[in-house]
Design brief:
The protein is of the alpha+beta class and 181 residues long. The chain has helices at residues 60-72, 109-115, 131-137, 140-159; strands spanning 21-30, 35-40, 51-53, 74-75, 81-87, 97-107, 123-129, 178-179. It has a single domain (21-163), classed as Nucleoside Triphosphate Pyrophosphohydrolase (Alpha-Beta Complex). It contains 4 helices and 8 strands, in the order βββαβββαβααβ. The protein has a 4-stranded mixed sheet with strand order 3-1-6-5. It has a two-stranded antiparallel sheet with strand order 2-7. The protein has a two-stranded antiparallel ribbon with strand order 4-8. Residues 1-17 and 166-181 have low confidence and may be disordered.
Length: 181
Amino acid sequence: MPHPSSPGRRPQIPATRGAAHITGRALIVTTDGSLLLVQPSRLHGDYHFPGAAARNEEPPGDACDRAIFENLNLHLTRRDQLLTAWAESPIPGARSEVTLLFDYGIYDSQQIISHARLNRTHIDDWALISPSDALEALAPSQSELLQATIHGVRHLVQRRETPDLNSPYPLPGRSCLSARR
């Protein structure tokens, strides 16, 4: 049997299914440790971290900012990228997904409730859910993201860096929430 790189034999290259979806997702935590999650209309009941697939040459962080504003009418300040994850689609022939999870900071749950306005075109519901309940409510790939960040959620809550949403001067370098109506 000839070596794969010998003349006359074409090297075996694994089959690909096209480019992966590049997705930006948001980790938004409340002071009581709950997570802001959304239930996309097209995904039949599973919750996800807020966010979206990047369009054309849009950076994943910008896609996430856009989705939070378009779907929840919240303007949040993105902080650090927490992790990057890859998930193969369970559907044969479908594209895989590369997800970048971003820290959007800690907010008072009452302020989130009073500012959020649901866009039912893309999102059926949103909820503030404890991390332990979120493990059950999230889609499997999203649950894996949460498991990878639980330590980070606890760390964020322990820091208690909560911006005052009524202040025109949020803490420097920290998250700031505003709703555009």
